[in-house]
Amino acid sequence: LSTLVFAEIYNFPNNFIWGAASASYQIEGAWNVDGKIPSIWDTASHKNNSSIRDGSTGDDAGMSYYYYEKDIQALKDIGFEVYRFSIAWTRILTKANQVNQKGIDYYNKVIDGLLDVGIQPLVTMYHWDLPQYLQDLGGWTNPAIVKYFEVYADTLFASFGDRVEEWITFNEPKTFCNGGYGEGWDAPEIKTAHANVYHLYKNKYFTKQQGKVGICLDTTFSFPANENVTDELVDKAMHFSLGRYANPIYSADGDYPSVMREAIDQRVKMKGEDALNYYTSNLIKPSLNPADSDSEIDSSFDPSWKRSASSWLVSVPEGLYHLLLWIKDHYNNPLVYITENGWSDLPMTTEDDGRVEYLREHLATMSRAITDGCRVEAYTVWSLTDNFEWMKGYTERFGIYAINFTDPERPRIPKKSVDLMKQVVRDNFVEV
Ligand code: GBH
């Protein structure tokens, strides 16, 4: 008997850019050497009874601080042309905001090592490892952080901008704002937000206590300076001052003031590429308990969707196709880099058939989206190696290379998906 294999071929443009992605705290280790200062993830993972599933830390992780050449070799073996990695703010600047030369030296070695073998660096400035001393000042809730981040970014541009051509400011602001400061399931594990408290009161206490929960906003009133100043301008000034906070909470449309949005839109017309992380999708319907969420939307998984080792991650390749078309239609077809896409399994498998299938199917839908006019130019798989998966520690593995975290040499061991990626990079097509 012979086996019949039905394979469909999905092509990619000749100049398509392939690569892999990682993030500093998840791979580097060396958490307290060469002048590095503590980050909020050092704090979260060193706490007694930390919330990290296996009680682990990123103190050593894949030891990329020492073994970055193994990462570069692993990229090169596949033929990748781009490496997305992040820089640890905590290595670059001291508490006194002085440049830490040893930190600069480390990233110089990584960047030069990549360029030597023809791999372009794509650098994320912030992938969640905020200096702890800045968190002690309120972190992302303190407006002063804007200036601190600017000083840090300035140092990066000045130190590496001669060789790094592509930068990403923030990895997943929705995740670190909501996870870190809204619902508290990521470092610094703070649960705040006016809306949460308001809804808590409304749902749990209002019937009995009949009180009110408000928010205290501050504003001046803006008077016209002369008779040429229009009422519209007064209104605009008020919206910049008060409306930016009040409108989302109190206005009929619940949005930021349109006058403010239009003014800002004019100034920051989206330029460059949209860096997009896509993993999974969901089914949505109007909420049965509207009080539970601001969106009044309930989401769930289709039971037919394949599950990974991560509870939130199911395989929905069609979702990537529809997302790319949605972006094309809503944002005037910008250039898009897929900066993360990947699959988790349990330690320690190199027979990662689930990942191979996930990647094949997602690359195929990406190819279809490109055929249908989307301007996707690059793809970096998450992740180059197994690494510290945040609150899940080392219990969920995303690498296309496996790492045994008890082996002092931390060899990068190719999984089956490395063979897949080699073939895709070589042929510029994927078979499904
Ligand atoms: C990415 O986030 C990150 O950029 C990367 O660092 C990470 O390693 C990778 O995903 C894999 O997780 O645990 O149910 O509360 C992906 C988006 C948003 C997915 C937060 C996990 C937490 C869900 N992430 N989410 S839950």
What does this protein structure show overall?
By secondary structure, the protein is an alpha/beta fold. The strands form 5 sheets. It has a 7-stranded parallel beta sheet. Strands 1-15 form a two-stranded antiparallel ribbon. β11, α13 and β12 form a beta-alpha-beta unit. The protein is globular and about 80 Å long. The chain starts with 8 loop residues before the first strand and ends with a strand. The model has no long low-confidence stretch (mean pLDDT 91). The site of ligand GBH has 14 residues, from α8. Belongs to the glycosyl hydrolase 1 family. This is Glycoside hydrolase. Keywords: Glycosidase, Hydrolase, Signal.
Task: List strands and helices in order, with pairings.
Blueprint: E1 9-11, E2 17-21, H1 24-27, H2 40-46, H3 64-78, E3 82-86, H4 89-92, H5 101-116, E4 120-126, H6 132-135, H7 145-160, E5 166-170, H8 173-182, H9 194-209, H10 231-250, H11 258-267, E6 273-277, E7 283-286, E8 297-300, E9 306-307, E10 314-315, H12 317-330, E11 335-340, H13 353-371, E12 375-382, E13 401-402, E14 413-414, H14 416-427, E15 429-431
Helix pairs in contact: 3-5, 12-13
